[in-house]
């Protein structure tokens, strides 16, 4: 098995190719999957670089929507309320975040990723933010983690450790997988 840095390098290259091929109907598929969670607080994200863009699902969601805010290295994410047209500013690591708004604790999270595998594990950027966040949220109540990316990002096996949190679903342009 590759180590995480080797896997991440290969996964970034695969994601770049998949992004160039286009997202297809992935956003609409994601919106359909999330429709059964209307009314629940949804965490999306503002796509950067070659990430799959969840905006269609965020716009379609009937309930509060928030996006992640990195508070500090080594800490769980916090989530600030987002709505179309709200004032945005540059956050840590170049992600756009709402300039103001209520802090929301999401029940459903759309999780960006670099790679994923058939077991439902994801390879992130290496900061552990989502793993830490999911662990904390899941300790309080049922929390749904929905990976979102391109089918070309699937790896044979994601290297994992005891801190890695499994996804519940993975949505790509090829469809939905449940774990």
UniProtKB/TrEMBL annotation:
- Superkingdom, taxonomy of origin: Bacteria
Record carries keyword Metal-binding: yes
Report the cofactors.
Answer: Mg(2+)
Q: Record-annotated residues binding ATP? A: 4-8, 122-130
Q: Which Pfam families match?
A: 5-FTHF_cyc-lig
Q: Does the keyword Nucleotide-binding apply?
A: yes
UniProtKB keywords: ATP-binding, Magnesium, Metal-binding, Nucleotide-binding
Which BP terms from GO are recorded? folic acid-containing compound biosynthetic process; tetrahydrofolate interconversion
InterPro entries per UniProt: FTHF_cligase (IPR002698), FTHF_cligase-like_sf (IPR024185), NagB/RpiA_transferase-like (IPR037171)
What's its catalytic activity? (6S)-5-formyl-5,6,7,8-tetrahydrofolate + ATP = (6R)-5,10-methenyltetrahydrofolate + ADP + phosphate
What EC identifiers does the entry list? 6.3.3.2
Mind listing the GO molecular function terms for this protein? 5-formyltetrahydrofolate cyclo-ligase activity; ATP binding; metal ion binding
- Annotated positions binding substrate: 46, 51
Q: What class of enzyme is it?
A: ligase
> What family does the entry list?
Belongs to the 5-formyltetrahydrofolate cyclo-ligase family.
Report what the protein is called: 5-formyltetrahydrofolate cyclo-ligase
């Amino acid at each position: 098995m590759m180590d995480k840095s080797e896997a991440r390098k290969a996964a970034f290259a695969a994601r770049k190719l998949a992004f160039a091929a286009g997202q297809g109907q992935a956003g609409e598929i994601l919106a359909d999957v999330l429709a059964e969670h209307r009314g629940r607080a949804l965490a999306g994200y503002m796509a950067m670089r070659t990430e799959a863009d969840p905006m269609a699902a965020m716009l379609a969601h009937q309930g509060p929507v928030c996006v992640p805010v990195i508070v500090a290295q080594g800490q769980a994410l916090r989530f600030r309320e987002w709505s179309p047209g709200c004032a945005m500013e540059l956050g840590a690591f170049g992600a756009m975040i709402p300039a103001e708004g209520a802090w929301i604790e999401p029940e459903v999270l759309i999780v960006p990723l670099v790679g994923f595998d058939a077991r439902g594990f994801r390879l992130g950027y290496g900061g552990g933010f989502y793993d830490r966040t999911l662990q904390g949220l899941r300790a309080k109540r049922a929390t749904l983690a929905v990976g979102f990316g391109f089918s070309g990002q699937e790896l044979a096996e994601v290297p994992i450790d005891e801190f890695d949190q499994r996804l519940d679903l993975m949505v790509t342009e090829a469809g939905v997988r449940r774990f």
